[in-house]
Amino acid sequence: MIRPVLIDAGPLIALFDSSDNFHGRIKAFLSENLCRFVSTVAVFTEVSHMLDFSARAQHDFYEWIMYKGVYVSEINQHDMSRIVSLTEKYADLPMDFADATLVVSAEKTGIREIISLDKDFDVYRLPGKEMIRNIFNSA
């Protein structure tokens, strides 16, 4: 069964940048794990910015989204109050906007797993002190 998993910018950048230190590990991990990836437009923006060295890499990334390599979790105006609350709570890290949208997405969708290169998701908590488990770091 294909399980839904959130995906952060780092693994997406590594997937589309063959010079990234994590490129091989991410490709291997993604080929070995059957997942339906879910992310946000904020994450896509971060990835696009980091791939700006190559129009080809950006184009490949956009096509991958278009062909549902990753599904878009919508963040709306109503979600901004939660994003503000989260970024205030985790200001000492600090929590960036893209990470906040992923936490909100986890709250809205019920997805409790993520693929991230960052350790920040080990700190972030959902209501009830529930974690979003980083399955890349535990692999």
Describe the overall structure.
With 139 residues, the chain is of the alpha/beta class. It has a single domain (3-134), classed as Rossmann fold. It is built from 6 helices and 5 strands. The model has no long low-confidence stretch (mean pLDDT 96).
Determine the CATH topology.
Rossmann fold
Please identify the top-level CATH class.
Alpha Beta
Q: Which runs of at least 5 residues are low in confidence (pLDDT < 50)? A: none
Q: Give the oligomer, counting copies of the same chain as homo and different chains as hetero.
A: single chain
CATH superfamily: 5'-nuclease
Give me the secondary-structure category: alpha/beta
Name given to the CATH architecture: 3-Layer(aba) Sandwich
User: What gross morphology would you assign?
Assistant: globular
Spatial extent as radius of gyration:
14 Å
List SSEs in N-to-C order. Answer: EHHEHHEHHEE
Ends distance: 19 Å
Q: How many helices in DSSP terms? A: 6
Major sheet, described briefly?
5 strands, parallel
What keyword list fits this structure?
alpha/beta; Rossmann fold; 45% helix; 13% strand
What layout of secondary structure does this protein have?
Blueprint: E1 3-7, H1 9-16, H2 23-32, E2 35-39, H3 41-50, H4 55-66, E3 70-72, H5 80-89, H6 97-109, E4 113-115, E5 133-134
Parallel strand pairs: 1-2, 1-4, 2-3, 4-5
